[in-house]
Amino acid sequence: MSDAESHAFDADMRRANRKKAVEGRSVIFKIKRCDGPGKPSRWESFKVPVEQGGNVISSLKWIAANPITTEGTKTTPVVWDSGCLEEVCGACTMVINGRVRQSCSCLIDEYAPLEGDAITLEPMSKFPVIRDLWVDRARLFHNLTRVKAWVPIDGTYNMGAGPKETPEHQQMRYALSECMSCGCCLDACPQFTKVEDEEKWDTSFIGAHAISQARLFNEHGTGKLLKGDRYEELAGAGGVSDCGNAQNCVKVCPKGIPLTESIGAVGRGTTVHAIKQFFQGKE
Amino acid sequence: MQKHHFLLRRLHSLTGIVPVGVFLIMHLTTNSTIAWGGLNSRAHGDGWIDRSIATFQHEVEFINNMPLLLLIEITLWASIGFHSILGVVYAMSGRPNNADYKYGGNARYTLQRLTGYFGIFFIFYHVATLRWGWDWLPGAAKWSHEHAASTLAHALQGSTEQFTTTGLFVSIFYFIGVSALVFHFANGLWTAAITWGLTISRKAQQRWGFACAGLGAVLMIMAWVSVVGFATLDYEQARGVEEAMKLDSLPIDSGSHTETAAVEQTDIDG
Amino acid sequence: MADEKRVIVVGGGLAGLAASVRIAEAGVPVDLFSMVPVKRSHSVCAQGGINACNEVARQQGYSEYQHFDETLIGGDFLNDQHPVLEMANWAPKIIDLLDRMGVPFNRSSEGFRDLRLFGGSLFKRTHFAGATTGQQLLYALDEQTRRFASEGKVNMMEFWEFLYPITEGEGEDKRCVGIVAQDMRTMQIRSFRADAVVMATGGCGLVFGKSTNSIICTGGAASRCYQAGAWYGNPEMIQVHPTAIPGADKCRLMSESARGEGGRVWVPRKKGDTRKPTDIPENERYYILEERYPKYGNLVPRDIATREIFDVCVNEGMGINGGNQVYLDLTHKDPEYLTRKLGGILDIYEKFVGDDPRYTPMRIFPAVHYSMGGLWTTYTPGDYQPEQPGTEHKPGNPIPIDAQPGHGLTIGAHNNAMTNITGLYAFGEVNFAYHGATRLGANALLSCIFDGLCNGVSVVNYVREGVDTPASELDQSIFDQAQQAEQAKHDKLMASVNTGKGDQSLNPYQIGQEMGEVMNAASTVVKTGPGLEKCLAKLDELRERFSRVELGDGAMWTNQSLSYARSVGDMLILAEAIAKAGLLREESRGSHYRTDFPERDDERFWKTSVAKFNEETGKSDIEFIEVKAGLVKLRPRNYGKVDSGTNKEKIPPKQVAQANA
């Protein structure tokens, strides 16, 4: 099944579910819980009445106000990360029915249209759990530092406008710049694995997210001054050549960012960079 | 390993194509002559099958007489070894998740690794049985480049007389083994283009995907007809053609030819 | 390190990041505290764009001065005028800087930055990056901050919650010397020393329950400063956007361009009609805006649309199924046309509501969007001090003053954007100064970055020149006391877990929800004296209940219930100030609309309301002080003839159509 077909299939299935959604139903949330790092995980189930237009966030809020499991045991409110609730900040990412996505845009009608249907919630699998559904994604931001994902401006004082660019080029950069660092591409990547030891972050696979950001800054008139540094980093251990081309990243990206194109572009960049280095010699 | 990370990664990718991939193409081309060698009107024999046997035999002789064969072989073995060892290391670093993410690309990712593991095992078996003569293994047959087709018929059929149960298993094993290697090569060729940065846009990746799938399909057919061809080949008929060819060539240069034939270590498995 | 002077910035949105970058760049180390990774701050939600005079507009007669003038009339003259002048003058330079930082501003075919029209102006002066300008600006500053962090100049303290400012001295001499904060993961509470503290903590949308704000926008941090003695300016000025998508968890903005492309607002004529909207025949639909405003129809200005929708639902009970919703209908338009013109926002609606607006009318309702009010701040005016304040500025007329820096504010003066507590600054949405009684679209991003860049210099100068005894040399007891006080509050809340008898009325989530409901009903679109009095009474009840609050989670690790409960307490205190100032402002001005006082009353209320926290009563004392004006003369706020007879904002329909496109 091609990308477009599988997306269309998912969308069709969700639309069909919406149509058969029963009003006034309750659904079961099976939530993987963990009290903190190093503590064992457990599953708890909650029966949650579905509000009109309810999503996973509104359901978790309901659970917070009524933290009683299906067995009738009183428990603590579930801990989870969230922010804008408009799928633009990336905070509320979690694994829903086995697949990573934002929970704010996850409508109950699409996932559990009938009375008693179940939805499972798990924390992201590639980042250390802080508590329940909340994970520590510090590595994701660390990876941005690895590739120097910034434009090296001289300073914040007035020095005139930035470089001109064509609308087509702007559109290309904009598409990459919509990345909200949610981590979906990493969680779904078979090659990106959980690394708890911070010492090893710099040599572990960096993932599509930072590779694509490196490309974004290489495409900026001033940003490309650090191109060499970025290619050095991405040619090293955990760099772009560790990519296994499963291409799950581009499928799960909520913003439709052309991540696999970025991987190809950075692959070319590192190849050319390496050849140049070989013939020019490096210190 | 850290310091030369990039170089190793790129060499790993490169060796998969040159020389290993190129060798695979040559090897399958040669082997599949057992099915289409009948086209060769100059070949020894009258019928289609005879000419196929003869063409195959001729190809094997040709390879066997290539200059610097030892060097070619060493390069090849080194490349396969390098590609295999690094491949296993790299493959071990991933955690397949096909149950949750049922995408085609993801399936190919995992298949690439599984076919890699299986391919190593298959190549080892293939060489051990036909080359090193580990005859305690099922499907072992003492290789003789003078009796190329018949040896393979023997190996795939389990005996020189009839098609045995062992032969059935060996044939199936070969069928899966060559399929795995062909997939591994075609898919590897597709991913290599992204790795090296030849294909960037989705469109380009798609187009190159079609090209690789096309190549893979052709190789796959060649691989299958080879296996089927040898598995169904009449041993005696092949033996007969090979003996006839040997007699034909004897008067020309008997001395050196026999000598070469005796030095089996420099053979390349047909 | 010990004697090095440091600055703490609280909040990692546009204002906080701009400040951190500017201060760190000057060589003063910054500790940046944020409850979320800064890239996830609420600034990401801004869509439309950022205003600035530009060369094209300039050659058509526009100027920075005109931008300044527009902002004042937009804010119904409740803005402090000097900082607004300085902000408008800086705006083009800020755009240039953002451009250099790599913000992918939309481009013209020649490669220049593209512009769009926005409310409150006749000139194209809004720069934009797709429909996510705020996100793009935030990311640019996030990247620069990361760069400084990688060089050790900014110390990132993410997932730390600001609890209280630490002050020393009393009255006039009171100065801020640090903060107490809590690690949201380990729950550790500790004090941090700083020679200046910049609050850049945004708005308080959550006081109103569901708003267009992120769930972190509680206003808790501002409330804590307010309780510590910082004044709070114009608390009653809250902007409500007319078309938002009501959701089970929050309200998401539905751009005005939907109406611009022909969207019609209606409700069923029959109260409580339960038929599907598509089954209701034309003559049984009540097209609210078209019938009430035949001339402008659905394209009446925002605040009027907001009020009418509110009126139909709340006062007349004619909302869909009796609820607070009306239809915004595009189904009469060709679906393909809609996809081409409005694809992006229609997809958002479909994604979150589940209905396709091409075939089913959207359900929308006004929602709280922005807080013009915030911590009260002061400044040193610049060198533009006209003898007579200017009259209405007409495009093309000679400008009274050029756009050089320093005309509005004295750049680098220690007290710019400083609260009444020395060394405690307020930047961005939490600074009350810029937007008066209504904010113009696309001015918010500007004010945030301007505060950080311009007034960041003031922070640096204050720390370098104005601080005699560095915080690092102060006696530890000051910090220990502050920390212990917070620890005690924390422990008290935690102790409530075990005493709980399971009384739902003492559940913090329940109290928070009731607060949102009462504040939304009484203190947003349409306010009345009695309504606000009732609201204040309800807030009293909620505060009493909150004093006996029962937490549901006793964990000493990543306890979100605790954090939420604490912010509910702080929001209740802020809510009281908002409602009380609204009650005392007996006039209608900008977004503040009182049915019992429908006219603007400059005589009594051309004044800034200032809330001061009374420690004895635990409530606010509201004072009205002179607005800092003198640059532009007060004039009626009139965008053209208005049918309803009010003097409210009137934007020509063509612009409304393009605003938020």
Question: What's the layout of helices and strands?
Answer:
The complex is a heterotrimer of chains A (283), B (270) and C (661).
Chain A (H helix, E strand, L loop, with lengths): L2 H18 L5 E9 L6 E9 L6 H10 L27 E4 L2 E4 L5 H4 L6 E5 L6 E3 L2 E2 L2 H9 L20 H11 L6 H4 L19 H12 L8 H9 L12 H5 L6 H22 L3
Parallel strand pairs in A: 1-5
Antiparallel strand pairs in A: 1-2, 3-4, 3-5, 6-7
Helix pairs in contact in A: 4-7, 7-10, 8-10
Chain B lengths: L4 H32 L11 H17 L4 H24 L11 H27 L17 H10 L7 H31 L6 H30 L3 H15 L4 H9 L8
Helix pairs in contact in B: 1-2, 1-3, 1-6, 1-7, 2-8, 3-4, 4-6, 5-6, 5-7, 5-8, 6-7
Chain C lengths: L6 E4 L3 H12 L4 E5 L15 E2 L3 H5 L4 H11 L6 H21 L13 E2 L9 E2 L5 H18 L3 E5 L1 E9 L6 E9 L5 E5 L2 E4 L20 H8 L4 E2 L4 E9 L4 E3 L3 H4 L3 E5 L16 E2 L1 H5 L9 H14 L10 E4 L5 H19 L8 E10 L2 E2 L48 E3 L17 H23 L9 H24 L8 H15 L6 H18 L13 H25 L17 H4 L1 E8 L4 E8 L26 H6 L3
Parallel strand pairs in C: 1-2, 1-10, 2-6, 10-19
Antiparallel strand pairs in C: 3-5, 4-5, 7-8, 8-9, 11-18, 11-20, 12-13, 12-17, 14-15, 14-16, 16-17, 20-21
Helix pairs in contact in C: 1-5, 1-11, 3-4, 4-11, 6-15, 13-14, 13-15, 14-15
Question: Your description of this structure?
Answer:
The complex is a heterotrimer of chains A (283), B (270) and C (661). In chain A, 37% of the residues lie in helices and 13% in strands. With 283 residues, chain A is an alpha+beta fold. Chain B contains 9 helices and no strands. In chain B, helix 1 crosses helix 3, helix 2 (48-64) crosses helix 8 and helix 5 crosses helix 6 (165-195). Mean pLDDT of chain B is 90; it is low at 252-270. By secondary structure, chain C is α+β, with helices and mostly antiparallel strands. Chain C folds into 3 domains: 7-237 and 372-473, FAD/NAD(P)-binding domain; 241-367, Succinate dehydrogenase/fumarate reductase flavoprotein, catalytic domain (Flavocytochrome C3, Chain A, domain 1); 476-606, Fumarate reductase/succinate dehydrogenase flavoprotein-like, C-terminal domain (Methane Monooxygenase Hydroxylase, Chain G, domain 1, Up-down Bundle), CATH 1.20.58. Chain C has helices at residues 14-25, 55-59, 64-74, 81-101, 133-150, 220-227, 257-260, 288-292, 302-315, 335-353, 444-466, 476-499, 508-522, 529-546, 560-584, 602-605, 653-658; strands at 7-10, 30-34, 50-51, 115-116, 126-127, 154-158, 160-168, 175-183, 189-193, 196-199, 232-233, 238-246, 251-253, 264-268, 285-286, 326-329, 362-371, 374-375, 424-426, 607-614, 619-626. In chain C, helix 1 (14-25) runs parallel beside helix 11 (444-466), helix 4 crosses helix 11 and helix 14 packs antiparallel against helix 15 (560-584). At the A-C interface, helix 2, helix 4 and helix 5 of A face helix 1, helix 4, helix 5, helix 10 and helix 13 of C.
